[in-house]
Each structure stands twice: as structure tokens, then as C-alpha cells.
Write a structure and sequence with these properties.
single chain, alpha/beta, ten-stranded mixed β-sheet, 20 strands, 21% strand, binds guanosine-5'-diphosphate, binds 6-O-phosphoryl inosine monophosphate, binds magnesium ion
Length: 428
């Protein structure tokens, strides 16, 4: 069976949740392989809106097995709250269909405190993190002092790990950040009820995927964030703390030859970004505000206003190169309706030269000037379009030019947030 990876091809919030939900019926397993509840994936089905942070976006399909891979960092409280909220709405989140890798790292209370304290101290140089403890949790993983979900079954080990971590965390919290020290009892007491509840959800996710393949099932790997927030390949240091590229779908879920038939990059018809960092095509004028308002560009996780700008083919080309994108699902095309003309950045000017890919030096993106191409807009409301032919000629022209510039076919065009508002395009 061939499998699918869904990757955010810009700076996150491209509409991954919608597309994963849409494609879930064709995969029997959906696995999240990185990130944590910094993610906010929106699924709108039958007029009902679901904001998912940790639970895979396949959860609304009752035959879909949802897995949390080893590459994820998980806040157990948020996970339990998300399960409860879904259960109240009639979605089954029992341990038969939702599983957590023994190796998934756990976001502890001190990770959240450190994330927020560090950002507060950065004053003018904030990354603009979500404050959910993501960075500090991945730091502990790399420092080999992290707590993992499997530790929920070994309370003595869990306690010892907390004590070990607090030796350093308390020195930082009190010495550097002027906060009070945490006690081992306090942290252990906070985690314990979640540890007990979640212990029945633990699974060897790597083996579960292998078993699914043996049974002839297909797997969808659900990315979070976006390629340009990737810790290695993104706009460092204004990035998240995990790898968002295709390769991490394998590492982050414990498989090797995943037979990836489709590597789908999700991209908005324009660009957005939350938090700090370079954004060459950003629109700081009224037009940016218009797009923000029409696109309801406010974060699902923190409610922050998203920065908005023109479509950037340099960004998308780089994502295609880094991830081997076989296709693009283009979202929010409807938001651009009514604009007289549209711009697409086709290259950058950097130090007097035209470049097709982002320059590699840190900070270089602050010094590029986008080279724009201008295309005519369209006035029609396209939210009811059902087929490629239903789209106005100029909308089709825009999509065609965009795929030409990034070199990857656009196979899906999304014209509204609902499952139904998706055009699947025949190629050839
Ligand atoms: P994700 O993090 O990539 O899953 O994306 P988010 O859920 O954070 O943000 C995407 C937002 O756009 C959500 O509010 C979606 O409901 C909405 N959305 C997705 N596709 C479309 C579309 O084609 N048109 C419009 N207007 N909204 C969309
Ligand atoms: P989804 O999966 C958009 C951004 C934050 C900040 C930077 C680092 O919904 O697309 P972190 O808390 O991860 O240390 O913050 O990354 N960020 C996102 N931006 N969508 C996301 O997820 C994001 N997850 C993190 O705003 O700039
Ligand atoms: Mg999001």
C-alpha cells in the first residue's frame, strides 16, 4: 500500500487539519510525528468546528486509528482535555483507536514556565513562541533528561527523573528568572493523575504501523507547523524546535521504508506567519489587514493575529526541494476573491543578484527584496465552486502560474474551510 505525508509548506497554519481530515478515509491510520500543542489544526465537518492540538486530524473518522509518534512532545493535561472535549461531542477517543508511543516526550510544568520566562526576558528579541513548553521539552530530550510517556508505568523512575530535572530547572527559575522553586512532590502530584489515565493508551507505535502495513492498510503522516519553521531548515532562530520536513515522518514515528506515494505540501494561496522572524512578502498596509480579516487569520492555539503577505514561490520551491513534494494542496483561494490584482514573488533580489532559493546565511532573508509578478484578480465568490472549470479564468491562471513557479502540481484547491469546499483537480 502506498502512504501519504502531509507537510506544511510555509510557516504553519496552511490548512493541514482540513486536508488530513479530508484524506483520512483513504488511510486507515493517521500518525502525528513531531511538534506538540503549539499546533492548532482546524477541521470543519458538517458545519461543526474542531480545533485539534495533539490528537491527529483523522479522529473524526471512526475507522481511523490515530497514533502519537515518538517525535511528538505531549502535554498530558492538554491531551486529556482534548480527549474529553471530543468525547462530549460524541467522538470516540478510547484506547482502541488512539495510541501514544512509549517514547513520546512529555511536556512538564517546568517546561512551560521556562518557555514563558525566557520569552519574557528576551524583551525586544522574542521568538514569539506559543509558550507551551515546546522548546524546553525538546531540549531535555536532547540533553537526555526528558520524561517519556512510558515512564508513566514506572512511578519511581518518573519521580527520580523529576528530581534530577528540578536540580537544574530550579536553579534557572530562581536564579535567572526570579521565580519560585518547584518541589518534586508538587510536580509529581500534578503529573500523576494524567500518567495513570494515559497509561492504557501507551503503544509501540513503530510496531503498530508495521502491523497496519502487514494488514494491507495505508498510513497518513500528519505534519505540524511548516517547513520554514523547521529547526534545521527554517528561518533559524525564528523556528520551532522540531523537524517539519518529510524525513522526520520516518524518524518521528519509528519506521524506515514508508513507501511514500504522495508527499503533499499544504500551502495557502498567500502567506501567513505567527510570531517573529523574516517574512519577505509581508504586507504591512491595509491590504495585509484586509487579507487577515477575510481569511480570519488569527491563531487557533494562541489567538494571535497572523501576519499576512503575498504568495512566495521561493518559499514553496524550497519546501518542494527539501521535502520531495509530489503535489500541492492550495488552500484559501477564496480569500483572494475581490482583489483587483495579485502578486506572486517569483524570486528574490539579494546583494544585487536574482536568486531562486532562499540564501543560506542566518538573517539573509531580512535583506532580500521579492521580485514580483502581477496577475489579474477576480471578483466572483468562489466558495461554492465544485470543479476546476467552475473557477473564474483568472483564478485558474493564478493557480497555474503558481504551480509553474514552484514546479509542483496543484492537485487540490480549497475554496472554503468545510470538507466539501475542496476541488480535486484532474491532471494531464
Ligand atoms: P493548520 O494548522 O495547517 O491545520 O491550519 P489552521 O487550522 O491553523 O488554520 C487554517 C484556517 O483556515 C482554519 O481556520 C481553517 O478552517 C481555515 N481554512 C482552511 N482551508 C480554507 C479555505 O480554503 N478557505 C478558507 N476561507 N478557510 C480555510
Ligand atoms: P500548526 O501545526 C504556526 C511558531 C510560533 C513561533 C515559533 C516557535 O498549527 O501549523 P514554539 O511554541 O513552537 O516554540 O514557537 O513557531 N509556531 C507555529 N506557527 N502554526 C503552528 O502550528 C506553529 N507552531 C509553532 O508562533 O513563531
Ligand atoms: Mg494551525
Amino acid at each position: 500500500m502506498s502512504n501519504v505525508v502531509v507537510i506544511g509548506a510555509q510557516w504553519g497554519d496552511e490548512g493541514k487539519g482540513k486536508i488530513v481530515d479530508l484524506l483520512s478515509p483513504s488511510a486507515q491510520v493517521v500518525v502525528r510525528f513531531h511538534g506538540g500543542n503549539n499546533a492548532g489544526h482546524t477541521v470543519i465537518a458538517d458545519g461543526e468546528k474542531y480545533a485539534l492540538h495533539l490528537i491527529p486530524s483523522g479522529i473524526l473518522h471512526k475507522d481511523c486509528l490515530c497514533l502519537i509518534g515518538n517525535g511528538v512532545v505531549m502535554d498530558p493535561q492538554v491531551f486529556c482535555e482534548e480527549m474529553d472535549a471530543l468525547m462530549l461531542r460524541g467522538v470516540d477517543t478510547g484506547p482502541d483507536r488512539l495510541k501514544i508511543s512509549y517514547k513520546t516526550h512529555i511536556i512538564m510544568p517546568y517546561h512551560k514556565l521556562l518557555d514563558q520566562a525566557r520569552e519574557a526576558m528576551r524583551a525586544g528579541a522574542k521568538i514569539g513562541t506559543t509558550g507551551r513548553g515546546i522548546g524546553p521539552c525538546y531540549e531535555d530530550k536532547a540533553a537526555r533528561i526528558g520524561v517519556r510517556a512510558g515512564d508513566f508505568l514506572q512511578p519511581d523512575l518518573l519521580r527520580r527523573k523529576i528530581a534530577r530535572a528540578l536540580e537544574e530547572k530550579n536553579a534557572l527559575l530562581t536564579g535567572l528568572y526570579g521565580q519560585k522553586a518547584l518541589s518534586v512532590d508538587e510536580v509529581f502530584g500534578e503529573i500523576r493523575p494524567y500518567a495513570e489515565r494515559l497509561s492504557v493508551y501507551l503503544e509501540d507505535v513503530s510496531t503498530a504501523i508495521g502491523d497496519a502495513w502487514k494488514a494491507g492498510k495505508s498510513v497518513m503522516f500528519e505534519g505540524a507547523q511548516g517547513v520554514h519553521l523547521d529547526i534545521d531548515h527554517g528561518t533559524y532562530p525564528f523556528v520551532t524546535s522540531s523537524n517539519a520536513v518529510t524525513a522526520n515522518a520516518l524518524t518521528g514515528s519509528g519506521v524506515y521504508n514508508a513507501n511514500l506515494g504522495r508527499i503533499i505540501g499544504i500551502a495557502k494561496a498567500y502567506c501567513t506567519r505567527v510570531g517573529s522572524g523574516p517574512f519577505p512578502t509581508e504586507l504591512l498596509d491595509d491590504l495585509g489587514e484586509t487579507i487577515r480579516r477575510k481569511g480570519a487569520e488569527f491563531g487557533v492555539t494562541t489567538g494571535r493575529a497572523r501576519r499576512c503577505g503575498w504568495h512566495d514561490s521561493v518559499v514553496l520551491r524550497e519546501s518542494a526541494r527539501l521535502c520531495g513534494l509530489t503535489e500541492i494542496a492550495l488552500t484559501k483561494l477564496d480569500v483572494l476573491s475581490g482583489l483587483k490584482e495579485l502578486k506572486i514573488a517569483k524570486a528574490y533580489e539579494y546583494k544585487g543578484k536574482i536568486v531562486d532559493f532562499p540564501p543560506q546565511l542566518e538573517g539573509a532573508l531580512d535583506d532580500v527584496t521579492p521580485v514580483y509578478e502581477t496577475l489579474p484578480g477576480w471578483d466572483e465568490d468562489i466558495t461554492g465552486a465544485k470543479s476546476w472549470e467552475d473557477l473564474p479564468e483568472n483564478a485558474r491562471l493564478y493557480v497555474r502560474r503558481l504551480e509553474e513557479l514552484c514546479g509542483v502540481p496543484v492537485v487540490m484547491v480549497s475554496v472554503g474551510p468545510d470538507r466539501e469546499q475542496t476541488i480535486v483537480r484532474a491532471h494531464g
